[in-house]
Design goal:
Layout: H1 2-30, H2 38-52, H3 68-80, H4 82-97
Helix pairs in contact: 1-4, 2-3
Length: about 100
């Protein structure tokens, strides 16, 4: 039972981080939030380019396995920029009150 709870926590955390990332991208694109380091912007861009690129370590046409490397790259990117995502959420919460 505890393993299922841990899996749920990890999945909900990933979904939450993806939602924060989407919001961050929107605010960055519109110029509302620019306090993100260049290395984090580059990491997101490179991860998205890798996912979109049809030439991967494991080809995407191998159904099921082809998406594993894409998911791992994207998850690594989320892990890499996690502190920046938290800073962004703090900024967003503080600016809602203003």
């Amino acid at each position: 039972m505890e393993k299922n709870i841990n899996k749920y926590n990890i999945l909900s955390r990933i979904v939450k981080d993806i939602n924060i990332l989407v919001s961050l991208i929107k605010d960055y694109w519109t110029g509302k939030y620019r306090k993100i380091p260049f290395k984090s912007v580059a990491a997101v861009i490179l991860a998205l380019l890798y996912v979109i690129n049809p030439f991967d370590l494991i080809p995407d046409y191998i159904l099921g396995f082809g998406q594993i490397d894409d998911a791992l790259i994207f998850l690594f990117c989320l892990y890499y920029i996690e502190k920046d995502l938290h800073r962004y959420m703090e900024w967003k919460i503080n600016n809602k009150r203003s």
